[in-house]
């Protein structure tokens, strides 16, 4: 499994006694999970039998998880899919996983840092930029402030102060 994996959820714990698990979703809704027959917990392939809304996340059942003990053993595991299993993107769209690690430059191509995380607290995506001095700053991922330009982000340095 050498190809790039994209994390869609984390197992928060067991749900009931029949092997279901509670999930914290990192992707957009249940449909992002439902479209995948197989998810990976590390190197372990898990066959998704069902997923439904549950609390602030989802409740899932995997063919390989038959009881509460097996479900509890998955607690804390990240669930991922290969990057090439994700649906194609539309014009101007990007996956957060593709942004992490990109170089950040200003309009004159001077280095400003690198994207180390993408956050969203409800008002839109924020890029977390690690500056060359090790300090970090958040900048809105909005046109004119931080633009995806090929394999880098062109950002307004005034927003990284």
In short:
The chain is built from three helices and twelve strands; from the N terminus they run E-E-H-E-E-E-H-E-H-E-E-E-E-E-E. A hairpin with a 4-residue loop joins strand 1 and strand 2 (20-25). By secondary structure, it is mainly β.
Q: Care to describe what's here?
A:
The protein has three helices and twelve strands, in the order ββαβββαβαββββββ. The chain is 9% helix and 47% strand. A six-stranded antiparallel barrel has the order 1-2-5-4-3-6. It has a six-stranded mixed sheet with strand order 10-9-8-7-12-11. With 161 residues, the chain is mainly β.
Which residues sit in consecutive blocks of at least 5 with pLDDT less than 50? Answer: none
Shape: elongated
What's the N-to-C terminus distance? Answer: 40 Å
Helix count equals 3
Helix content: under 10%
Give the total of beta strands: 12
Which sequence of SSEs, written as H and E, runs from N to C?
EEHEEEHEHEEEEEE
> What is the SS-derived class?
mainly beta
Q: What portion of the residues fall into strands of 2 or more residues?
A: over 45%
What would you report as the Rg, rounded to the nearest angstrom? 18 Å
Spatial order of strands in the largest sheet? 1-2-5-4-3-6
Q: What profile does the largest beta sheet have?
A: 6 strands, antiparallel, barrel
**Mean pLDDT rating:** 89
């Amino acid at each position: 499994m050498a190809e790039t994996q994209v994390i869609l959820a984390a197992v928060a714990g067991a749900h009931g006694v029949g092997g279901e698990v509670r999930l914290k979703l990192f992707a957009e809704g249940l449909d992002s999970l439902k479209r995948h027959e197989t998810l990976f917990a590390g190197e372990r392939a898990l066959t998704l039998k069902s997923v439904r809304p549950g609390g602030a996340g989802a409740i899932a059942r995997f063919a390989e998880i038959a009881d509460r003990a097996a479900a509890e053993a998955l607690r804390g595991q990240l669930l991922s899919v290969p990057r090439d299993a994700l649906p194609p993107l539309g014009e101007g769209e990007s996956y957060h996983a593709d942004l992490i690690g990109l170089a950040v430059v200003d309009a004159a191509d001077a280095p400003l840092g690198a994207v180390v995380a993408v956050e969203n607290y409800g008002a839109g995506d924020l890029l977390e930029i690690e500056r060359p001095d090790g300090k970090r700053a958040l900048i809105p991922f909005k046109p004119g402030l931080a633009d995806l330009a090929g394999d880098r982000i062109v950002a307004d340095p005034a927003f990284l102060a």
